[in-house]
Design brief:
It is built from 1 helix and 25 strands. With 303 residues, it is mainly β. Strand 14 and strand 15 form a beta hairpin. The N and C termini lie far apart (178 Å).
């Protein structure tokens, strides 16, 4: 009786072992990988921004995961863009951008995951150059702003201006022109321009300073042929726009001719042999290197 029971138990055990072995021989089913999150950075791009897809994925079987990318603009796939980076120049202001990520473990693809959209925002206008014209400026000039800029989105640009004199802001001067009368010789004038499109202010840009240049005196009198016997006289008259003192010099003159360096009075005692055409050249200077010249011919009759 005991032998029969033992034989029955052994048979049952063999059946159980056989069932377990047959289950071990069945192939395991591969589980597809899963994307758990996908985001686009930066979250506030403009058309000059390079976009990056930040993706997290996992595989239940711990297989390595490869992600495949499709960039989507306004609901339509962008052809040829299949990496995790979307370069510049593919978008315009106002576009909605998403990235569709499909994970793969090399055996099977997981379910595609579509990121939340980001909107392409306004690009700031940019100033390329700002300067003051004329480049050589005098106290009686009107100074004008010269500005070159561009807007990456093609928007129109409006500029605002801030003028400075000797480092002090001229708060009431907001136009692109600084009228004469606000500065004098030696003043340092600078200009800051700020661009604006319909949505945003761009970064301001400041010009190099313009130093108001010294102006030369100018001779306003006409040469004289006045002779009083054998004495020639000519009262030279000159004005200096900067009200600097004027010095007079004879640069070229017949022998014996003299000029008063402060008053500009020319006197010449004519002698025998001085007849004919004489060349006279007068210089009026302000002592700071600025000067003007008057040159004329004087005819002396024979005596």
């Amino acid at each position: 009786m005991k032998s029969r029971i033992l034989i029955a138990l052994l048979a049952s055990l063999m059946i159980i072992v056989s069932c377990d072995s047959s289950q071990d021989l069945k192939p395991k089913t591969n589980a597809p990988p899963v994307v758990t999150s996908a985001n686009i950075l930066p979250e506030t791009p403009n058309i000059q921004t390079e976009l990056h897809a930040m993706v997290q994925s996992q595989d239940p079987d711990h297989d390595p995961v490869t992600n495949h990318y499709e960039w989507v603009k306004n609901g339509e796939e962008i052809p040829g863009e299949n990496t995790n980076i979307l370069g510049k120049g593919k978008l315009q202001k106002g576009d909605l951008v998403q990235v569709r990520v499909t994970p793969s473990d090399g055996k099977v693809n997981g379910t595609p995951f579509l990121s939340a959209p980001v909107k392409v925002l306004n690009s700031l206008p940019v100033i390329q150059e700002v300067r003051i014209e004329p480049r050589v400026a005098y106290a009686n000039d009107n100074l004008k702003a010269f500005v070159q800029g561009f807007d990456p989105d093609g928007d129109s640009i409006h500029y605002t201006y801030q003028w400075e004199k000797n480092g002090v802001i001229l708060s009431e001067e907001r136009d692109g022109t600084l009228l004469t009368g606000r500065f004098k010789k030696g003043d340092s004038i600078a200009l800051t321009a700020t661009p604006r499109d319909s949505e945003s202010l761009g970064n301001p840009k400041k010009s190099n300073p313009t130093i108001i240049t010294n102006r030369p005196p100018f001779i306003v009198s006409s040469p004289s042929n006045k002779m009083d016997g054998n004495i020639y006289t000519y009262q030279v008259q000159a004005n200096d726009p900067d009200d600097d003192p004027i010095l007079f010099t004879l640069k070229s003159a017949p022998k014996g001719m003299e000029i008063n360096k402060e008053t500009g009075l020319i006197q010449w005692k004519i002698h025998q042999g001085d007849q004919g055409t004489q060349v006279v050249e007068i210089e009026a200077s302000d002592g700071e290197g600025a000067k003007s010249i008057q040159k004329y011919r004087l005819s002396v009759a024979a005596r």
